[in-house]
Amino acid sequence: MATVRKLKENTVLPERWDLEVDIVVAGYGATGAAAAIEAHDRGAEVLILEKMPKPGGNTLISGGIILAAGTSFQKARGIDDSADAFLTYLKATAEGQADEERLRSNAEKSAESIEWLMNLGVKFPPELLMFTGLERLPQYDSLTPAKPRGHIVQEGTGEGLMNPLGKAIDQRRIRVMLENPVRELIRHPATREVVGVKTDKEYIRAGRAVILATGGFSRNEEMVRNYLPAYVGSLPMCALMGIDGDGIRVAQALGADLVNMGLLNLLVGVPGGLITVKPGKQVRLIYAPRITIMKEAPCVLVTKKGRRFVDEYMHYELLGPKMREVEDQACWCIFDQNALRNCPTVLHMASAGLKDEIEQGMVKKASTLAELAKQIGMDPDTLQDTVFTFSENAGKCIDPEFGRTLHLVPIKSGPFYAMQYKTVFVLTAGGLKINSRCRVIDVFGKEIPRLYAGGETAGGSTGKLYTSGTALMNCFVTGRIAGQNAAQEKAWV
Fold first, then answer.
1. Which residues lie across from 442 on neighbouring strands?
2. Cys-Cys with 57: which of 29, 278, 355, 471 at CB 3.0–4.6 Å?
3. Across-strand partners of 335?
4. Is 366 left (phi over 0), alpha (psi -120 to 50) or beta?
5. Contacts of 428 by beta carbon, 8 Å cutoff, 6+ apart
6. Is the dihedral of CA 483, 487, 492, 493 positive or negative?
7. How many CA atoms lie less than 13 Å away from 102 in the CB half-sphere?
């Protein structure tokens, strides 16, 4: 490793750089990949540094949904949509807690990003264009008519994004260094420009700029405790490792300002028995019938006392907060054989007939509701009464208790199943303050020269309510902007 010489104001510069490139991108998920490709295509020599042993981060385990307006897919299906209408919707869901300039940029550049991804080989089947949830609620539909804006990759997971992005990186021969996190940003003592980074292994000179794309801080317990104390103890449902605020903290050391650190992008309820296959590999998730979009998948969610408390099929962005109000922030999903018989894949990534999940204790199974109740420590009479009442009303296609309108099918075909649900948070909303050029802003409102950020590392792109598909949209919009602008920087001497 190169030696360093101390300069004024406790700053240091290496006497010799171990490596020199135009642009260093920290993080190899959607944001980092987009930034690297755009910078390379504008003539910059780019190096990607990734903390983990493989690329992808949260993008890899995502559902691969990107929200966008005015796309060729919408036009092909006769859907008249615009960036202005999309912006109205984004502003409404943000409820004044997001940066309007960021929202406008996302709305205006969302369609462009879809076309850009298509040119890289990402496939978006037109038939999968969908509503993602909140847009059809009366308070939003009355402001701007709901339009299907959810563009889903063909594979239905983030692999459908990361695989083509990875190929594009390889084809451009962009250098990637895995298991090599950025530990410090190196700033020039005279000009205050960011001129390089320090990793565990070397000092790397960035002749034009550094771009931070390391994700949020879901797995940093200390940051969660400091900024999101209400969610201490909630499970972070994200990439198994990383996502611990590295990019945010190294920029803070240079005086970077933060925004929306007290907001979550997404709180949901998922099965409590998440399985880690092997250290360093992705989490295996199974989704109970509540989340599926398939028909004939009836279920009810009940508290530990055996009573329903919510419309089970309300959008998951709204269901999570409801779950936080129940005892222990946990509930049980009750469903029957009918769900499995009519929807064999209703449990995404689960084993056939839930055989493995039952053996591992993730799912409870019994021939009667009374037996099932005993297995999960619930009063049998209460659970039977709850399910009977729901089923009787469902047979009439009504739900007097909670106004549910979807999947009103009686639950009566044994055997019966139970899976515990717990609250988890998926994405953090807070991060570095950036401007329209994706340049990082310090606590005095000034740009930090040659330092850019995007994706979940930057805050301000969402407000009070997270809208499905906006996270990936924001990753590609900000990543591309950061890469484009960083490539235009003149090399420092």
1. 256
2. 29
3. 299, 417
4. beta
5. 216, 217, 218, 227, 228, 263, 264, 265, 456
6. positive
7. 31
**How many secondary structure helices (H) and strands (E) does the chain include?**
15, 22
Q: Evaluate whether 126 touches 147 at the Cβ level (below 8 Å).
A: no
Q: In which region does residue 192 sit, left (phi positive, over 0), alpha (psi from -120 to 50) or beta (all else)?
A: left
Q: Is the pLDDT of residue 167 over 70?
A: yes
Q: C-alpha distances in angstroms, 50 versus 32, 214, 268, 313, 390?
A: 9, 8, 28, 38, 50
Distance CA 453, CA 251 (A): 9
C-alpha to C-alpha distance for 198 and 204, rounded to whole angstroms: 6
- Backbone dihedral angles phi then psi of residue 144, each to the nearest 5 degrees: -150, 120
Helix then strand then coil, in percent of the chain rounded to 5, is 35, 25, 45
Q: Can you say whether the dihedral through the CA atoms of 122, 127, 133, 136 is positive or negative?
A: positive
260: left (phi over 0), alpha (psi -120 to 50) or beta: left
Secondary structure element (H or E) that encloses residue 20, with its range: strand 19-26
Q: How far apart are CA 247 and CA 28, in angstroms?
A: 12
Reading the block at residue 335, the tokens are 């469903």
Report residue 477 as tokens: 């919009």
Helices (H), ranges, 352-469: 355-359, 369-375, 380-394
Determine contact, residues 282/239, Cβ cutoff 8 Å: yes
Q: Both ends of the chain: CA-CA distance in Å?
A: 22
- Ramachandran angles phi, psi of 85, nearest 5°: -65, -40
- Mean pLDDT, the chain, as a whole number? 87
User: Which residue spans within 110-202 are E strands per DSSP?
Assistant: 150-152, 175-177, 182-187, 194-199
Provide the residue count of the chain: 493
In the DSSP assignment, the letter for residue 448 is E
Chain centroid to CA 101 = 21
Return phi, psi of residue 324, to 5°.
Answer: -65, -20
Report the C-alpha gap between 81 and 73 in whole angstroms: 11
Q: Could you read off the pLDDT of 373-413 as tens digits, one per residue?
A: 999 999 999 999 999 999 999 999 999 999 998 888 899 98
Helix (H) or strand (E) holding 49: strand 46-49
Element (H, E) at 205: strand 203-212
Q: What is the pLDDT of residues 72-109, one digit of tens each?
A: 999 999 999 999 999 999 999 999 899 999 999 999 99
- For residue 368, the one-letter residue type is T
CA 312 to CA 406: how far, in whole Å? 9
